Every structure is written in structure tokens, then in C-alpha cells.
Predict the 3D structure of the following.
Amino acid sequence: MREILTERFIHYARQHTTSDPKSETFPSTPQQMKFAVILASELNYLGLSDVAFDENGYVTATIPANIPGDHPVVGLIAHMDTSPDFNGENVQPRVIDKYDGGIILLNREQNRVLTPAEFPELNLYQGESLIVTDGMTLLGADDKAGIAEIITAAEILMRNPQIPHGKIRICFTPDEEIGRGANRFDVSKFGADFAFTLDGGELGELEYENFNAALATLTIHGKSVHPGFAKGKMVNALLVAHQIPSMLPTAERPENTEGTEGFFHLVKLSGSVAKAVQEYLIRDHDAVKFRNKKELFTDIATRLNTELGYQAVQIEIKDQYFNMKEKIEPVMGVVDLACRAMEMAGVTPKIIPIRGGTDGARLSWMGLPCPNLFTGGHNFHGPWEFIPVNSMIKATEVILNICRNAYTLKLNP
């Protein structure tokens, strides 16, 4: 398994599949569709059934049941795109055999290194094989590792019919990194009773709780007057915009929060005297606190408009996704199944809340309960990304254990 899994991941990582948030197409980049063709061809070669990729870039396939009876259908999902936050073109993965615990030189010209002092998680992997970048790109373990692990598990199941399992559905999605991965996902057509996204981090991570998320856009309309004649007339939209962060609690910024603590995150500020625009990410695990955070922006707009004497501040708040916990708790057997699968593989489950979201969060609210499992990677979305080969092997073993035990699951106690 080690050799084929390593080769498969490196092959996938070299495919340029960066998504584009500015694009209006779906998928957002043609490279993702090219990768979809590669994956569909491989699934066909391995003998899976119902292999397809549609005009939206979704790749789907089936591993037919090899046991009689009517059993729950398990889904396995990963995404094809890599983050637009850092260069994902011309990825050149490198294998570090038997990591010695020291400094890893990634790129001499850029003076980029992986050091245990800066990335102490490296200390967990002394003696293991690591896959790293060349320091010029991200690696793409998020989520090429998830794809490699799912396909490797599928290959093992197809070649070993003595492993009992029910029907298994596979899907690889586009554009997860820009929040569109579930936009055109057809839950009914997919036909799974529950699923797992393979899109998590280090060994053992299991997540079924995430932020509620919204985007607040504040548009400030100023009054532009020649500064020589501005007294009593000018309203500088930039200065009004400058007041807004001070009207939000400093303790609830991303840099001051952790765990399940929510935040307000200013991600965009642009404009002029006449008009300014701010965008804030609103996040909270707690539904009541999430609602209160959104209401605070409305209160701020009302207060500023009252002080200025006209409708200077307009606010638009769009919900993005919700905490999957509410949809997973009624079917906690799915989480128990994942824990059991990890323990069978010698992995200790680390159940943690996600300080973000996944396709699984949206899919859970679309009717497909979908916790998130580890892939093994670290430091996603940048040149310091790495993944231990042993962690990928364990992720593959967990998938196999889920498949061989899923048919015993009772979703409705």
C-alpha cells in the first residue's frame, strides 16, 4: 500500500487544480475538469461501477455491495481543488525518507525551511517518511491526500472481494476551497445514507462540529466635498469605516480566539471619501451567539446612521453555512462508526470542533450527514505544508474499516 499510495498522491499533487473565487464558471477553473477526467478514467480502470463526471465537474462512482441484504449506503467524499491562497501550479513534491528530526531545507533561494522550532508537530514524525514541497508552492494534501486515500481504499476493496461491505458511493467535488463545493451536489442522486469527507488534518482528527458562518458587507456612503470648503458638509466614508472595528469587541477577533470561540474578521476594506466597503466574516459555533453577532452589525449601522442623520451605512448579511452538529447528533452512530474504525487501525480518535467549515457541513444541512475525517496533512495552504506517509496509510485503513463495518450501522436506534 505504501508505494502505490505515495505515487498516487504525488501524481495528483502535480495536477494544477487551483480554484478561482473571481470566476463565474462552475467549476471555477478548467484545470479541475481536466483532473476530473483523470480521476474518472482511473476509477473506470479499477473496475468501479457507474463512473461519471458531469458538466459541473463532480466525479462519482460506486463500489457495489458484496453481501446480501438491504444495508446503509456509505459515501466517501474529497475535493479536487487547491486553495487560491498560495501558488498551486508546478507542484514538485519531495519525499524525505526516515526524517531525522532536524531542519528540512525546502528552498535555498527563498530561504524556506521546515524547522521543529517553528513547527513542533514535526517532532511526532521522527523516523517516518514525509512528503514536502519545494518551497515555491503549496503541496495540495488538502485535498489530494483525501482523494488518494479514497481511491487506494477502493482499489483494495475491488481486488479483495473477501472483505465484506455494503454499497459504497464515491464523489470528488470541485471548488471546496472557495465555498462552492456543495452548490450543485445532488444528494438524492448520490444515494448515500451518510458520508464522510476526507478533508481533515493530522492523524486521528474527527470533526462533526463547525462554525455557523455569515458574510457581512457594509457599504458606507459619504459626502464628498472639496476639502477647502468641507466644514460642516463633508462626511468621509473612509473615516466612518474606520470607526466600525472599534465598535466590535476586540476580544472577538480571530487572533484572540480559540476552540469554539467565535469571531468577527475584517477581510476587506476599500474605498474613497465618497464610498467605502468593508467585508466581515462572522463565525460562531453557538447558534444564539451567531444570531447576536449578526444583530450587532445591524445595531452598529442604525447607530451610525442616527449620528450622521442619513442612511450612510447599508448592511447586507448572507449566511454561508451552519454547524453540522445539529444534523449529526440525531445519527451519532455515524461518529461511533468512525471512532471504531480508527481504533481498529490503532489510531486514537481526536474529536475536535472545526474552526471553519467543510463541504460536509453544507451537505449535512442538505440531508446527508457528513462528518470530517483526517487525511494526515499539516500546514495546509502554504509552502510549509507536509504529510507523513504513515498517516496516509492509516487514513486508508480507517476508510477500509468504515466500509467493512458500515453495513452493521443502525442509523435510527
Remarks:
- The first strand starts at residue 49 and ends at 53.
- The two ends are 36 Å apart (CA to CA).
- The mean pLDDT is 95.
- The chain has two domains: 2-209+324-406, 212-320.
